[in-house]
Amino acid sequence: MTDRAQQAISIRDLKKTYANGFEALKGVDLDVAEGDFFALLGPNGAGKSTIIGIISTLVRSTSGEIQIFGKDVATHVYDTKLDLGVVPQEVNFSQFEKVGDIVRTQAGYYGLPSKLARERTEKYLKKLDLWDKRDNRARMLSGGMKRRLMIARALVHEPKLLILDEPTAGVDIELRRSMWDFLQEINRNGTTIILTTHYLEEAEYLCRNIAIINHGEIIENTSMRSLLGKLQQQTLIFDSIDEVSQAPQFDDAAIQSIWIDSNTFEVTMPANHDINALFAALTEQGVRVKGMRNKSNRLEELFLSRLQHGRESDNKPQQSVSSGKDADKQESANV
Amino acid sequence: MFNSHIFIAFQTILVKEVRRFMRIWLQTLVPPAITIGLYFLIFGNLIGRRIGDMGGYNYIDFIVPGLIMMAVIQNAYANVSSSFFSNKFQRCVEEILVSPVPNYVILLGFVAGGMARGLMVGLIVTIMSFIFTDLHIEHIGLTLLVVLLTAMVFALAGFINALFANTFDDISIIPTFVLTPLIYLGGVFYSVELLPEFGQWISALNPVLYMINTFRFGILGSSDVNVWWALGMLFLFSGILFATAIMLLRRGTGLRH
After folding, report:
1. What whole-number distance in Å separates Cα of residue A79 and Cα of residue B245?
2. Least CA distance to A19: which residue of chain B?
3. Angle at A32 between CA A30 and CA A35, to 5 degrees
4. Which residues of A touch B19 (CB under 8 A)?
């Protein structure tokens, strides 16, 4: 077990059974280190939103304990809520309020004096590119703007821990990238971030540590690097300069290739295989490559394999593993 | 939470509530003013002339306190029940629930918002009454105390209604089937002395009768009920409803899973 006082959030044996008998959480143990950028992944109904609901006190746990920066959520309500910012999955602001009023009002709930509330509102609306919309009614905003508004609102009291429940759902690629940059910036400035997302490339790009939850149990909790290291094989798609009539052949039986069309073929090989050797073999066969990409996101492959494995092993829970602050961030694998 | 933070949080909820009913003034302030204005015109002015005196006063003078109180009760209740339920419905109540605002500040903020609307409509109706009669207030302190306590009682009741409500129908059932009969049978338009003994006994069970008559005593100087007993009842109702609302908030009734 880790020193819980050093963790941004520390959860022990968290259980939740809803009134209809549905067991949403079956004893979750989870630690997220201070300063971490942490991914909490899982299929729909796995228990992610229930965990976030319990942390933010919108859902009552059946049993278990949560500490935020070493303080119990149940006994240090004021301090723990002051340290916490939550961006929910669904829009939950009044559609009839003005954008600026929504953020300023939230600042007021946290006791910020009006001058400071106005300054923070301006600061975060500008950072999220919503300042020119400050006098617009919230219902007039696009889906992406509404999500950014919820982020600005969650940050107005400058929490040390920010939880984002699918913040980029329905957001276009350009905007998603700019939100990633912003989240990385606030993480660099010291804010611990917990992210749930269905975009696994997002988790892979942003997060240093990861937990996968399924059927209310944590089935994987490790660093992103360690998890990606478990990848057994990868499939790459090649675009050739010249036309090819068949897939290239390789001496190594572990490398399989499939011809797709006259300028495209795919190669499946062990994850740790030397790519230079692969290129050498292609060059020998006279194949000139102009582009190469992963067939699917690496984390996606692992995610699906862990869920499958979880089903096969009757969802046996694993011991909580602390997410190390010093775990290296794994950069995107796209080449 | 520090005292200054608590005050800021309370002020924030109150300002938000006032901003809400001022933004939709055509739905919140104008309709009750028109309705009560029609009561003044039809019952007070046109029919009232034929009725003559009631309780020793011109009929229109007699009904003015009751109509002001009716406006205060209906609007204090409606503001909190509809606003808080809308917050639940749109899930924006989560903005407050995730913040460190204590339960009693949430309750006081919404109740103060309801009282503000009730008192504002009451003020509009009072000003309108000057068109029809020369209103003279006998006991200004008592009048203000009663109207404040009554607005608070019904704002608290509206809050509890909103906590239990799951649909918009749930916040219209109590006003339609409970509040309206209580107000109309609470001596707005008549003195309970006109009723037979059994009717007077039944009316004595209606808390609104005490509120309206105490308010009438504050304005006209006469009442069908014991004013001190009525004041005690208002304080008691306020305490009971406040404690009930706090208990429900602590349990998370209608708010937390």
Report:
1. 25
2. B257
3. 175
4. 101
Residue ranges per structural domain of chain A: 4-229+300-312, 233-296
pLDDT tens digits along B92-102: 999 999 999 99
Nearest residue to A158 (alpha-carbon basis) of A188, A186, A130: A186
Task: Please indicate, yes or no, if residue B135 is contained in any of the structural domains.
Answer: yes
Buried b (16+ CB within 10 A) or exposed e, B115-139: bbbbbbbbebbbebbeebbebeeeb
Chain A: nearest CA to B76, how far in angstroms? 21
Largest interatomic CA distance in chain B: 61
State the complex-level ipTM: 0.89
Write out chain B residues lying below 8 Å of A95, CB-based.
90
What is the pTM (predicted TM-score) of this model? 0.82
Whether A94 and chain B come into contact, CB under 8 Å, resolves to: yes
B136 belongs to a structural domain: yes
Task: Give A207-257 pLDDT, tens digit per residue.
Answer: 999 998 988 999 888 888 777 766 667 788 889 888 888 888 888 887 888
**Which residue(s) pair with A245 in the sheet?**
none
Q: Which residue numbers in chain B have pLDDT < 70?
A: 1-2
The mean pLDDT of chain A is 84
Chain B: residue whose CA lies nearest to A94: B92
Q: How far is B103 from chain A (nearest CA, A)?
A: 12
**Which A residues, 250 through 309, put their C-beta within 8 Å of a C-beta on chain B?**
none
Contact B9 A108 (CB under 8 A): yes
- Smallest CA–CA distance from A156 into chain B, residue: B99
Class of domain A4-229+300-312 (CATH, top level): alpha beta
> Using the beta-carbon criterion (under 8 Å), do B252 and A60 form an inter-chain contact?
yes
Contact B95 A86 (CB under 8 A): no
Structural domain includes residue B80: yes
Q: What domain range is B70 assigned to? A: 3-251
**Residue B256, in any domain of the structure:** no
Structure-token match 């300002």, residue found? B15
Asked if the Cβ–Cβ distance from A110 to B19 is below 8 Å, we say no
Of the residues A68, A76, A79, A109, the best mutation for testing chain B's interface (the one with the most B CB atoms within 10 Å of its CB) is A109
Q: Tokens 């998370």 belong to which residue?
A: B252
pLDDT at A326: 34
> What is the b/e burial string over B81-109, where b = at least 16 CB atoms within 10 angstroms of the residue's CB?
bbbbbbbbbebbbbbbbbbbbbbebbbbb
CA atoms of B48 and B39, how far apart (whole Å): 10
Q: How many CB pairs below 8 Å do chains A and B form together? A: 84
Architecture of domain A233-296: 2-Layer Sandwich (3.30)
Q: Do domains A4-229+300-312 and A233-296 have the same CATH topology?
A: no
Task: Tally the domains of chain B.
Answer: 1
Q: How far is B101 from chain A (nearest CA, A)?
A: 6
List the strands of the sheet with A23-33, edge to edge: A23-33, A7-17, A63-68, A71-72
Q: Do B23 and A109 touch (CB under 8 A)?
A: no
